[in-house]
Design a protein that fits this description.
Elements lengths: L2 H24 L9 E3 L4 E2 L2 E5 L3 E5 L9 E2 L19 H11 L9 E5 L4 E6 L9 E7 L1
Parallel strand pairs: 1-4, 3-8
Antiparallel strand pairs: 1-2, 4-6, 5-7, 7-8
């Protein structure tokens, strides 16, 4: 094998072998910086359990922007709505995202929310909801 053929083959193998790893390092966050990571189209893990009064931190360790937006109609009774961008409803968060990109959590950034009401708190990423980027916070007494 000549030198150029070897370099092409080796370079291609290296690119394929590390492709999945690049997304994990794009945000520059370590796993100690967040409870829930955001990959290309998923919250990791997609279900997370905490006790009442605990704060959950989402960290964008991916390579593209995401949001964290509660499904307002699916929140437990008395639970506070939460959304990156500080909107007060699911519709307002969607509108802000589509109008100006407000609520974007860029790679390397975090968003946090303290859960004060027990129950299942369902949420999603506005731009990646259709791709299945949804999650649940289970809050126990």
């Amino acid at each position: 094998m000549d030198r150029r053929a070897y370099l092409r083959t080796t370079g291609a193998a290296l690119a394929v072998g590390t492709a999945g790893c690049l997304d994990a390092f794009a945000g520059g966050l370590s796993e100690e910086d967040y409870d829930i990571g955001m990959s290309q189209n998923a919250f990791l893990p997609d279900e997370y359990e905490v006790s009442v009064g605990e704060t959950v931190v989402w960290g964008n360790n991916g390579s593209r922007g995401h949001t964290v937006t509660a499904y307002e109609s699916a929140l437990p009774e008395g639970a506070a709505f939460f959304a990156s961008g500080d909107r007060t409803s699911t519709d307002a968060a969607r509108e802000a995202w589509y109008d100006t990109g407000e609520g974007d959590i860029a790679p390397g950034e975090t968003f946090s929310h303290t859960f004060e009401v027990a129950g299942e708190h369902h949420y999603f990423c506005i731009p990646h909801e259709s791709g299945g980027m949804v999650g649940t916070i289970v809050v126990r007494e």
